[in-house]
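Predict both folds.
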Amino acid sequence: MSSNDKPTVLIVGAGLGGLMLGALLEKSNVPYTIFERAAMVKPLGSAMAVGPTLLPIFQQMGIYDDIAATGKYGCHIYSHRESLEPYRPQDYSVMKEYTGYGRYIIARPDYYNIMLKQVPAHKVLFGHRVLNITEDDDKVTVHLSNNQTYKGDIIVGADGAYSAVRQRMYEQLKAKDLLPKEDQEDLPFSSTSLVGQTKVLDPEEFPIVNKPHCQFLGFLGDDKPYTWCVMSTTQKTLCWMAIHHLSKKTSKEAMEQRFRNSENSGEWGAAPAQTMCDETRNFPLQLGDGKKWTMGDLYDLTPKELISKVMLEEKVFKTWHHGRYVLMGDACHKLSPSGGHGAVTAMHDAITLANLIYVMPTKTSDDITRIFEEYKKERYPAVMASYKSSQIMAKAIENSIIGKLILFLMTRMPIWLWKLSLKKTIMYRPQVGFLPNIPLQGSVVPIVSPSEQKARALFEKQQQQDQQAASI
């Protein structure tokens, strides 16, 4: 693609997926702007796992060392009953044999800050809320709440589960009677979550924060619809999460409460978060030091502004693009965090889109439609696999008969079968085709990424042309 043919990309949403796409477009010299409705980034969230499906990409981007230094290496999850009786630990160490990479647990706010640094500050416009989007034959225009407008060739909805971009796109499709019935249904959810991160803790009082590997501790309620977990970080803090598994009745009540307390968001205000803190503060913890701790102890050690309550929706939409609109991340597939795939799938979306935008021959409507179709064709099967995995994990931690059966099987699974199941989770390990390739490691060859292959072929061709030109 010549410099004149590179599309201008408008990205709505400065979450992890939107920032990843911006960072990759930056490296491929594709013009872009990111719009974020929030005026500032709040350091909210718990922790997330970063492993073999992302670490090679971070090597390509030159941020692997930052991730490894900020995260805490950990290859086990230690689960317990509410009585603190332990289950057999889940061992993820075989991933290094399969891929050459281990697994790091990193506080989500710290991870976000690393990603934010990959995008020039003037290209991320905070406090810019999208009010409307209009489209003609060759351009799309974003109309903002401050009366500014921006024109581009592609608009990317990376603005979460309640995406404004998806809403505008679906309105167009619905008017043409082209929107599938299932995409018109409300976004379902079956649980809510309380998340946060403590202040820096004294190792003398909390020896868990001094252990060299991340201590990922999970707890399952015996007679209550809750699960809760704690993760130690390199920064000597504890990230934590409490999940309330809802019935259909309580799901509806929680939905109504959300609309009373916030606007177009999956996050509640301070009062509902405090209520959930009160409801869960006596839940017991085993931090490995022989003392009796509860979740309330962690709440008391967490700055109030770092505690938030969020909804955990689950849905994969059928329609991901139309015209010059395309969706990514939670805007087109919202996964339960139980499987640990949500942020990973969003960033894989960004990689696929960036690879395909890189190889676009022109910015015509036909070429844009074609790359969007290729994007969904590549990503949809991987997303569905993650969705099914997340559903199984979500069921396993529910206080239900099915959940107890799944948990029984998982904790008594033969080691060979456990390793086989882990192998499936690391099969999709794409790379960025227009950045220097990272040689494959480990014993398991990843699934081929067509977008990566296309971008790699063009990248290598251009490198050869540059070398020939330099030698003349």
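Second protein follows, with its predicted structure tokens after the sequence.
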Amino acid sequence: MDVPSRARGHRGGRATAPVLVAAALSLVLSGCSAADQPLDLGTTTAPQQVQAATALAPSPPTWIEVPRIDARSSLVPLGLNPDRTVELPSVHEPMQAGWYRYSPTPGAVGPAVVLGHVNGDGQDGVFARLRELQPGDEIRIGRQDGQVARFVVHRMAQEPKSGFPADEVYGDTADPQLRLITCGGAFDGTARSYRDNIIAFATFTGTVPSG
């Protein structure tokens, strides 16, 4: 799964070392190449306005749950490889999701980014059904401080990897946001990769009880 983009480092909406401000980084995700069927978003409803809640103090995430698509995973922190591609969970563990640690922590101001495989190693991945999400659907993320951040999807997008909307995904926001990213679209047999990315855009709406 490839997500070519300009990735920006954030902590509460501000760039952090070692990711330099305005550095052009290519996030390359591999392993979404175990199937040959299209994974298209299809017809979607219009974007939905969601009122953002007051931001939380930073705290690393520990798990994610997306009830509509029966997805749940612990979250591993993902950094950058020496070639400035994003570090990913192993393709041999396609049900493992990860948080890009140079993005804000979920619930803090800015766009937290969570990445997951659609499939890998001949198995479905944690975000195999991400394309089924709709505006209004809930996403929950547990944090190290014990709080569970609740997000509501306000928009779904399917974008070609050649035109990845980096500013929309990684650009600073005035309130706490979340982006979930995986592969989709037609399968390119030569490149052994899907041609598009499926992106869920969500807004932080507050905390909920754990469990």
